[in-house]
Every structure is written in C-alpha cells, then in structure tokens.
Design goal:
alpha+beta; elongated; about 110 residues; about 15% strand; Glutaredoxin
C-alpha cells in the first residue's frame, strides 16, 4: 500500500492516522505501507507511476487509487483486495449412457 501525503494540507494527517490504525489491526507484518511525500522528487516519480495527482491519496495493491479517502473507504479497499476471487463457471452436465433406462423411466408419466 502506498500513501501519498504533503506536509502542508490538513487532510494528510487524518488519512495517516487511519492507515496507522489499519496497520495496528492487521499487524505490521501483514501490511506493507510505503509513505511518500508528494513534494519530493522521489515522491513525484512514484506518484506518476501510480497516476496519483492529488494528496492525500492511497494506492492499494498498485491498482486501487483512493483520493482523500475516509477510514471506511481505506478499510473497504483493503478488504476487496484481500477477498478471494471466485469465478462462476457454467455447469456442463453430461448424460451417462448407462443411466438411459433410469432417466427414461423417470421421464415417463404413469
């Protein structure tokens, strides 16, 4: 997770506090949090790579960009990234030839 902040806006400390709370609840070993000062050369380079144009901003998993997020938006974004991906597949039923007599008997009305 990447956090982009500035030292001059009032919202960055609020988002930073939410991120620290998330880090405490998940455990430091389970959450990699990288902080970047938006107004440094390194911070601007990283921001360009991740298409960040405003601060404060949080990028989750290198994909999900949240600008000036609330604590709930951050927590929800992390939960979405951690949720297992389940894809539905079309069921493909095949008729077993040896069951022909059974299915024919079931389909026949008395």
């Amino acid at each position: 997770m990447d956090f982009f902040y500035s030292k001059v806006d009032a919202a960055s400390p609020v988002v930073e506090a939410s991120l620290k709370e998330l880090e405490q609840s998940m455990g430091h070993d389970n959450l990699q949090l990288n902080s970047h000062d938006f107004f440094t050369d390194e911070g601007r380079r990283k921001a360009q790579l991740l298409k960040v144009t405003k601060v404060p901003a949080v990028v989750i998993g290198g994909k999900t960009l949240l600008e000036n997020p609330t604590k709930n938006q951050i927590f929800d974004g992390v939960n979405v990234m951690l949720a297992p991906k389940v894809e539905s597949t079309k069921a493909d039923f095949m008729k077993e030839p040896s069951l022909g007599v059974v299915t024919q008997a079931l389909a026949t009305k008395p």
